[in-house]
Structures are given as structure tokens and as C-alpha cells.
Amino acid sequence: MKKLLLTGLAVAVVALGLAFNASAESKGKSLTLSGKGCCAKCCLKETESCQNVLTVEKDGKKTKYYLVQNEVSKGFHSQICETVKDITVTGTCKKVGDKLEVTAEKIDLAKKK
After folding, report:
1. Per the count of CB atoms within 10 A, which of 18, 23, 27, 69 is most buried?
2. Phi-psi region of 59 (alpha: psi -120 to 50; beta: other; left: phi over 0)
3. Is the CB of residue 89 less than 8 Å from the CB of residue 76?
4. How many CA atoms lie within 13 A of 44 on its CB side?
5. Which residues, at least 6 apart from 80, have a Cβ–Cβ distance to it below 8 Å?
6. What are the structural domain ranges in the chain?
7. Model pTM?
């Protein structure tokens, strides 16, 4: 009985955590994300035109954030068009359809250690 109760409690905590994360993303809350940046067309072969994508890995799960084509994103694109680099993106995130889109306010290459 205790195991069942603890399992149920753990599932509820995980579900609440996912709901909170999804609601922050869907409301356009400002955040900073770090991960692998590349081009959706040239590296991932997912789109017909170039677009920056940030892939963040957390707890073994990979999440892709597609960067909205604004001046910040377009100005940075040449640094990751045909390669993958560690980057940090600051901006607002929202869910559009089944994709997470980030409107970047700032994009930086990750500092080498």
C-alpha cells in the first residue's frame, strides 16, 4: 500500500512539474537556455529554408527550440549554419502547434572551458 501511495505521489509531482514547464513556455515567459545550436535545414534536414534550432538535453530527454526569424537570429545564423556549436539563447518561448519557438533577445556562443 505504501509503495502504491508513493508511486502515485511521484507521478503527481512529475505531472505538476511538466504542467508548470509547459505553461511557462506557452505564456511566452523569458528564459535562458543552453545547448547545441544548428540549422534546421543544413544540419537537421527538417526545413526547406535555414532556421536556427537549439537542442537542449535534460535528464536524458532532448527538446528542440526553433528560433523565430528576427534580427538577432538572422545575424547569428552564419555561425551555426553548417555546423553544431554550444550556444546560449535568452528570449521568450511559446508553443506553436507541436513546436516550441523562441524569440531570441540574445544569442551567445558558449565559452570554452
Report:
1. 69
2. left
3. no
4. 21
5. 37, 38, 39, 43, 52, 87
6. 2-109
7. 0.73
